[in-house]
Automatic annotation (TrEMBL):
It comes from Sugiyamaella lignohabitans. Its cofactor is Fe cation. This is Alternative oxidase. Fe cation 2 binds at residues 212, 263, 317, 320. Binds 2 iron ions per subunit.
Length: 371
């Protein structure tokens, strides 16, 4: 008995030599070549055939080799699959490199970072400033923060504990990570929609959002907000994201000015926090180590402390202050982003390092930037 079941499938094909593949129940494959205008595929089952007398050659065809290769690759993949759901293990996250590597700052420049303020110059600036003051009032109420007037920094009623600092910082960073993402997203969609280039703003805006989220993730290693705080973050993000999104569609220039003012406040907050540590008002942070995620992102030394970390974060904030005030001075759909490419024109230009911030803490005017 040679054939117990047999069927044929025919379809149009080339008039040159083609192949008919005959396979048996014992996984032997024979390839016959013959001339025909039809491609024929026949599968024949031979349950009682004698293997020693079989005419079928070993599976040495190219298809057979490739099948064996796929099989071995699949087996290799199977052995690498970790059955413990390792994707969810927190320590695995730290293995991935930063999407936007931090540019790196030196200690002298970080030490020279100072509080600065952009005086509103026109009606749009005043809108941005008043909007920021309104947001800040809500923010201070939500975190129970009272900023001391000059000369009252050491007054006990203005003392902020480490827990209150972390509460304020986490709230601040969770909001601060929104504008860059909204601005980058809107400009990305605009580029797709209008079929034109973006002048390199998107990357800087997304990098800022990433940097703010790294701030948040770092401080989240030091605290664990309760359900009330998480509820507040949910509401605040919902309101702020949608408001900022609509505002960015209407007038992105005012939005960048607003972010510039927001970052001014961030520099004020971190400067006061550093001063409090140096005065010994936050004893738990005197020699507290820095979370690993921060050491890796800012390339900090192993013995770095929270105070060192705050210098880095404050330097980032002052850079956001400069960048957003500069972007607020530019023509949004015409001008290139001066931070994406530094033109060598014989005079100082905006750059990613802190040097351009020391000379221009609240941004660069349009006519200072090389074309
Ligand atoms: Fe931040
Ligand atoms: Fe910032």
């Amino acid at each position: 008995m040679l054939v117990t079941s047999k069927y044929r499938l025919a379809t149009l094909a080339t008039k040159s030599n083609v192949y008919s593949v005959v396979g048996s129940a014992h996984n032997r494959i024979r390839v016959h070549a013959f001339s025909t205008s039809f491609w024929r595929r026949t599968i024949t089952a031979t349950p009682h055939s004698d293997p020693t007398k079989s005419e079928a050659p070993p599976p040495a065809t190219k298809q057979g080799e490739q099948l064996e290769r796929f099989q071995s690759l699949a087996e290799a993949n199977t052995t690498n699959v970790n059955r413990d759901n390792d994707l969810a293990k927190p320590d695995r996250h730290d293995l991935s490199p930063a999407a936007w590597a931090h540019p790196g700052f030196n200690f002298i420049d970080m030490n020279n970072v100072a509080v600065a303020h952009h005086e509103p110059k026109n009606f749009a600036d005043k809108i941005a400033r008043n909007a920021l003051l309104t947001v800040r009032w809500c923010f201070d109420k939500a975190t129970g923060y009272k900023h001391p007037p000059p000369g009252h920094e050491d007054d006990p009623k203005y003392i902020v504990t480490d827990k209150q600092w972390l509460q304020r910082i986490v709230f601040l960073e969770s909001i601060a990570g929104v504008p860059g993402m909204v601005g980058g997203m809107v400009r990305h969609l605009q580029s797709l929609r209008l079929l034109r280039r973006d002048r390199a703003w998107i990357e800087t805006l997304l990098e800022e959002a990433y940097n703010e989220r790294m701030h948040l993730l770092t401080f989240m290693q030091l605290t664990n907000p309760g359900i009330f705080m998480r509820g507040m973050l949910l509401i605040a993000q919902g309101v702020f994201f949608n408001s900022f999104f609509i505002a960015y569609l209407v007038n992105p220039r005012i939005c960048h000015r607003f972010v510039g003012y927001l970052e001014e406040e961030a520099v004020v907050t971190y400067t006061r926090c550093i001063n409090d540590i140096e005065k010994g008002l936050i004893p738990s942070w005197d020699n507290a180590p820095v979370p690993d995620i921060a050491k890796k992102y800012w390339k900090m030394a192993d013995n770095a402390t929270i105070k060192d970390l705050l210098y880095y974060v404050r330097a980032d904030e002052c850079k956001h202050r400069e960048v957003n005030h500069t972007l607020g001075n530019l023509k949004q759909n015409v001008d290139r982003n001066p931070y994406a490419f530094v033109v060598d024109c014989g005079r100082e230009q905006p750059a990613k390092d802190l040097k351009s911030n020391i000379s221009h803490p609240v941004g660069w005017d349009r006519d200072e930037i090389a074309a």
